[in-house]
Amino acid sequence: PAFTAMNHFFIESLSPLYEAVQTGRIFPDSKFFPDCTPKTDPAAILEAYGQAKNEPGFDLKKFVGAHFDFPPEHDPDYRSAEKPIMHHLENLWDTLLRQPLAAQPQHSTAVPLPHPYVVPGGRFREVYYWDSYFTMLGLKASGRVDLIEDMVDNFAWLIDELGFIPNGNRTYYLGRSQPPFFVLMVQFWASIKGEDVLLKYRPQLEKEYAFWMEGENTLSADNNAHRRVVRLPDGSILNRYWDDRDTPRPEA
């Protein structure tokens, strides 16, 4: 699926409704509302909110329920009780597996992915970057190596499409990444599939390296930091955590 600037949807664009929902704590989890999907055009929802919010008896939670689709919860039929641990883990992969969407819901904060992927579960309804490396180790132990390639391909797609791998496939994560485990994922997949894998993903490995090292050549003793690179007093260059947005995290 194509993902361009034209179809980015940011939950903060629903201001002042967004602030009212989050500060009102109408949902126990601050991530819940950013994962909701507007049923209609956000501008129309904001207009309706502006007209309704001062009416007697206005119920904010009911208003949100009427104008947004709530995110799906975990599989309500899955039960781990009394299952042997290995049986539980093997069953859990199918519960945590998500398929690519045939069509991306309009005005969703989800970034569509082209291949199946595994989510952490619970409140984490999307794929996460470095978590997925450890997921891959578990998939191999469970004999689900087919999903490893799908997940590596998803991350390669994100690098090609966005220029980097965000924290997770949500628009509210587009300002930041996580520790760059993509090279470890590729090495791990190569240990299963063969060294040709290294050549296949070389373009994406180089693009991600460029993302993390961007601005390295501009550093000096007087200018010792730029986005994700920092120069130490002895001239060593290290990477650091960096969020390109200087605002509070929309999901928290």
Question: What does this entry look like structurally?
Answer:
With 252 residues, the protein is mostly helical. The protein is 39% helix and 6% strand. It contains nine helices and seven strands. Strands 5-6-7 form a three-stranded antiparallel beta sheet, with no helix packed on it. β5 and β6 (229-231) form a beta hairpin. The chain is globular and about 65 Å long.
Could you state the order of secondary-structure elements as H and E?
HEHHEHEEHHHHHEEE
> Strand arrangement, largest sheet?
5-6-7
Tell me the Rg in angstroms: 21 Å
Indicate the percent of residues in helices.
25-40%
- Give a short account of the largest sheet: 3 strands, antiparallel
Sheet-strand content, in percent, reads 5-15%
Q: Overall pLDDT, averaged?
A: 92
- What is the 3D form? globular
Distance, first to last CA: 28 Å
Structural class: mainly alpha
Q: Would you report the number of β strands? A: 7
Total helix count?
Answer: 9
Unreliable spans are none
What are its keywords?
252 residues; two-stranded antiparallel sheet; 9 helices
In short:
The chain is built from nine helices and seven strands.
Helix and strand topology:
Layout: H1 17-24, E1 37-38, H2 42-52, H3 60-67, E2 68-69, H4 85-96, E3 97-98, E4 117-118, H5 129-141, H6 145-162, H7 182-193, H8 196-200, H9 202-213, E5 225-226, E6 229-231, E7 237-239
Antiparallel strand pairs: 1-2, 3-4, 5-6, 6-7
Helix pairs in contact: 5-6, 5-7, 6-7, 6-9
